[in-house]
Amino acid sequence: MKTYEKNLLAVLFAAAIAAASANPALAWGCTALAEEDDSYGYSYNYEYQEDAVERALNECAERTSSDDVCVIVECDEDA
């Protein structure tokens, strides 16, 4: 299994756990991945999508090299 696939599975697993423990009210959660080095960031339980996107991108950027670009790969209103 490639590093990218392992990181994606870890992010999805963490998002699933977060969603299971979240309040029943709808809240935004997003996942961001770096294009080159497989870094990731995620967010959950945000009232606004823009805030969830910002958190996921910032978390990904903290984990990646300065030359890599993080992109949002998923946002869900029930996360």
Comma- or semicolon-separated keywords:
single chain, 79 residues, alpha+beta, three-stranded antiparallel beta sheet, 2 helices, 3 strands
Approximate shape? globular
How far is the first residue's CA from the last residue's CA? 27 Å
N-to-C SSE string, H for helix and E for strand: HEEHE
Helix content, binned percent: 40-55%
Determine the strand fraction and express it as a percent band: 25-35%
User: How are the strands of the largest sheet arranged?
Assistant: 2-1-3
Structural class call reads: alpha+beta
The number of helical segments is 2
- Biggest beta sheet summary: 3 strands, antiparallel
Unreliable segments of 5+ consecutive residues:
none
- Radius of gyration, rounded? 12 Å
Number of strands: 3
Counted up, domains total 1
Overview of the molecule:
By secondary structure, this protein is an alpha+beta fold. The protein has one domain. Helices cover 43% and strands 27% of the residues. Strands 2-1-3 form a 3-stranded antiparallel sheet. A hairpin with a 5-residue loop joins strand 1 (28-34) and strand 2. The longest helix is centred in the N-terminal third of the chain and has 19 residues, at 3-21. The radius of gyration is 12 Å and the shape is globular.
Sum this structure up briefly:
With 79 residues, the chain is of the alpha+beta class. The chain has one domain (3-76). The protein is 43% helix and 27% strand.
